[in-house]
Amino acid sequence: MEKCRHAAIIMDGNGRWAKKQGKPRTAGHLAGADNVRTIAIAADKLGIEYLTLYAFSTENWKRSADEVNYIMKLPAFFFKKYMQEFIDRGFRMRIIGELDALPAATEQVLREAEESSRSNTGLSLNICMNYGSQREILLAAKAYARDVLENKADLSLDEAGFEKYLMTKDFPPVDLLIRTSGEQRISNYLLWQIAYAELVFVDEAWPDFTPEVLERCLREYEERDRRFGGIRNV
Ligand code: IPE
Ligand code: IPE
Ligand code: MG
Asked: Is there a domain that residue 196 lies in?
């Protein structure tokens, strides 16, 4: 059984969760943000070392200005409420995505969260904000091309070398990818990093994704036979 060091979650279904309760979509995002704390604590207790959460994609700018503005304000609310607790728990926050395209105040809050937990060695809690995997790979290719032009790299680059250009360069590969709320697609998330991840799709919307559901996903992961192209483990 391969240990799950790195779990990634596509936190989907906030809007549908809210609608079901007769509330505006933003109420779903608020409940979803609170659930990040609950699940981060649970993941840490379950021995996960890296938890990478999809909070806002490069495609999510297509939504209404009201919804986007609300989501952009959530990090300030979230870190004000929980950052001290995260630091006390030894969590290290890392933000993945193109932060300079975010509203300045949002970018600042995210960078501060990273900075204030930089020396922590516990759970690496990675929030993907304005993240798109195709964009990440394109930026990596451009950075590599630049290094070649400047004679800092050559054509001997291999997979491990290429990973150093990705935004996730400090993380091990994703072992388990979970998507909530019934949809079975990847939506431009961690395309390189999930090459050999086990995929688990659950029906619960993100605000209803409890520590018990996370444990269920981990049990399912543990029952899988990961082969990495080799032959069956017996
Ligand atoms: C996930 O929930 C949060 C973001 C994508 C920002 P959604 O907002 O996508 O909720 P549904 O999928 O519309 O229910
Ligand atoms: C994926 O969810 C992005 C995040 C959870 C941040 P979406 O709701 O944006 O994905 P699609 O549009 O259903 O593929
Ligand atoms: Mg969605």
From this structure: yes
Number of domains in the chain: 1
Q: HSE (CB half, 13 Å, CA atoms) of 73?
A: 9
Q: How far is the CA of 179 from the centre of ligand 2 (A)?
A: 10
Q: Is 44 a catalytic residue?
A: no
Q: What is the pLDDT of residues 96-134, one digit of tens each?
A: 999 999 999 999 999 999 999 999 999 999 999 999 999
Rg of the chain over Cα atoms, rounded to whole angstroms, equals: 18
In a domain, 145, yes or no: no
Residue 193: which of 161, 171, 211 has the closest Cα?
Answer: 171
- For the full predicted model, state whether its pTM sits above 0.85: yes
The answer as to whether 93 is a domain residue is yes
| Residue 60 designated active-site | yes
CATH number at residue 39: 3.40.1180.10
Whether residue 234 is contained in a domain is answered as no
Is residue 3 exposed (0-12), middle (13-18) or buried (19+ Cβ within 10 Å)?
exposed
Per the CB < 8 A criterion, the answer to whether 220 and 197 are in contact is no
Atom of ligand 2 nearest to the CA of 60: 9
Q: Could you tell me the residue range of the domain that residue 202 belongs to?
A: 6-131+173-223
- Whether the CB-CB separation of 234 and 214 falls below 8 Å is answered with no
